[in-house]
Specification:
Length: 514
């Protein structure tokens, strides 16, 4: 069975992945393709139930402005244009686009015409509601056959449609949370205009993926580098269901995992019917990192050593047929390569496949978003701890210890990080904060404990909220929670006498400190 399919044509806007995620939330399978990488004939062959044009930074009159052929509107396939996509639809079909006298950014009161099914299909939507705007051009005259379906104080055409041709366009961003009932509007387009039933569920994805992996792999051997992160864990679970003992997972424990984490990963897979190899390689890594304090050298050293350890283990297995990679859809979209193979190698170090003797790479998660990967993990029976594990960088705590890494510092950081995580979970914040961890700075300061002067390390706590990890806000953790963390860490972890909370956003800071 193939799923209903919606094509998202990407014009370079900042919310493109978000549109795709929202469509999938409506249980409709979609793919994002760069607008200039798909021809009309290919679109015909794909036979999408609908096409969505994303926003983009350009003006339709700009030099090299991205465009589409008029033919796309004549295929009889419903189209929804968003922001730049709406202006493009107007422009190509003979309407007029002009620069606004007053640009609109942010939450904007919008008046909707409920005769248009985008809005009429959403019962709860009032005639006036807030939408999220971000534009400097606007549609000043709609093409022939179109009607205006929404307006704001400064934008006479915030939506337009041609019901007969099933062409719809919105100036605002329905995919952004700030647009009230925005996802429902997308849902109305998918259900009422494209006539999608919503047949995309993780249950049927899992069934199909297992079947396809079996067909492809046959009785071949599969090798997977398991890091214990969400993507590689879900992949291990999927492959184990599909090919069982034909799969070997190599888990290289470099010793920079969080407290107890190496054992947790091993325990999580102990009941699975796979070949699981854990390599305790901490000594090798520590040896290589002796005297190293430069962040980039640390990363490079760890990446190279990882490959060496992995290679040595892989050699013991001998020739494998397939190397499995946990590439997920955001990696594919970000590469801008459309369907071209994208190889994400562990620790962001290229070249892993070159070191292993294999026939082909398989990437069974490459069409899934992170939240879908998690859902699939749940569907396959992975534990909550693994499925909801927060992102963890390949080099692990090595890049959260500023300066040279020593056993002592590693232990201090593991203990402090453990307390921070425990308190965040107790406060019920562990699902809302996207990433939270402790950093051991290389700074020492004077303190007083009892009657004694101390001269110990400063620990930094970092917690961020983000959707894409490209930008991030620091999390507004209640002072009371921070206070408990600080008190417990200073009391329970030796050699820390000061705790700071990092309140920088990304940019200008990054999420990690190194
Ligand atoms: P930054 O620090 O660049 O981090 O703001 C963004 C996200 O990427 C994670 N990160 C890594 N993940 N290998 C990884 O697999 C790495 O070398 C690496 N460095 C940073 C970081 O934890 C955050 O989620």
């Amino acid at each position: 069975m193939t799923n209903e399919y919606v094509l998202i044509l990407d014009f370079g806007g900042q919310y493109n992945q978000l549109i795709a995620r929202r469509v999938r939330e409506c249980n409709v399978y979609c793919e994002v393709k760069p607008y200039d990488k798909v021809t009309i004939d290919e679109i015909k062959a794909l036979a999408p139930k609908g096409i969505i044009f994303t926003g983009g930074p350009q003006s339709v009159y700009g030099e090299d402005a991205p465009s589409v052929s008029k033919e796309i509107f004549e295929l009889g396939i419903p189209v929804l244009g968003i922001c730049y996509g709406s202006q493009l639809m107007a422009h190509v079909l003979g309407g007029k686009v002009e620069t606004c006298t007053v640009s609109e950014y942010g939450k904007t009161e919008t008046v909707y015409d409920k005769n248009c099914v985008l809005f009429g299909g959403v019962k709860e939507l009032p005639e006036k509601a807030v939408s999220w705007m971000s534009h400097t051009d606007f549609i000043s005259a709609v093409p022939e056959g179109f009607k205006i379906a929404a307006h704001t104080a400064n934008c006479p055409c915030a939506a337009m449609y041609n019901e007969e041709k099933r062409l719809y366009a919105v100036q605002f961003h329905p995919e952004v949370n700030h647009t009230q009932f925005g996802v429902d509007m997308l849902g109305s387009f998918l259900k009422n205009v494209c006539e999608c039933t919503g047949d995309w569920t993780m249950e049927n994805y899992a069934e199909r993926a297992i079947r396809e992996i079996r067909e492809k792999v046959g009785d071949g051997k599969v090798l997977l580098a398991l890091s214990g992160g969400v993507d590689s864990s879900v992949l291990a679970a999927l492959l184990s269901k599909a090919v069982g003992r034909q799969l070997t997972c190599i888990f290289v424990d470099h010793g920079f995992m969080r407290k107890n984490e190496g054992d947790e990963v091993e325990a999580a897979f102990s009941d699975w019917d796979i070949n699981f190899v854990r390599v305790n390689a901490k000594d090798r890594f520590m040896e290589k990192l002796r005297g190293v304090s430069d962040p980039e050298t640390k990363r490079k050293t760890i990446g190279e050593e990882f490959i060496r350890v992995f290679e040595a283990e892989a050699k013991k297995i001998g020739k494998v047929d397939f190397l499995a990679q946990g590439t997920i859809y955001p990696d594919v979209i970000e590469s801008g390569a459309g369907d071209a193979a994208v190889i994400k190698s562990h620790h962001n170090v290229g070249g892993l496949p070159d070191y292993v003797d294999f026939k082909e790479i398989i990437e069974p998660l490459r069409m899934l978003f992170k939240d879908e990967t998690r859902k699939l993990g749940q569907e396959l029976g992975l534990s909550e701890t693994l499925v909801w594990r927060q992102p963890f960088p390949g080099p692990g705590l090595a890049i959260r210890i500023i300066g040279e890494i020593t056993d002592e510092k590693l232990e201090i950081l593991q203990d402090a990080d453990w307390i921070f995580r425990e308190e965040i979970a107790k406060a019920g914040l562990d699902r809302s904060i996207n990433q939270y961890f402790a950093v051991l700075t290389n700074n020492r300061s004077v303190g007083v404990m009892g009657d004694f002067r101390t001269y110990d390390y400063t620990l930094a706590l970092r917690a961020v909220e983000t959707t894409d990890f490209m930008t991030a806000e620091f999390s507004r953790i209640p002072y009371e929670v921070l206070e408990i963390c600080s008190r417990r860490i200073v009391n329970e972890v030796k050699n820390i006498n000061r705790v700071c909370y990092d309140i920088t956003t990304k940019p200008p800071a990054t999420i990690e400190w190194e």
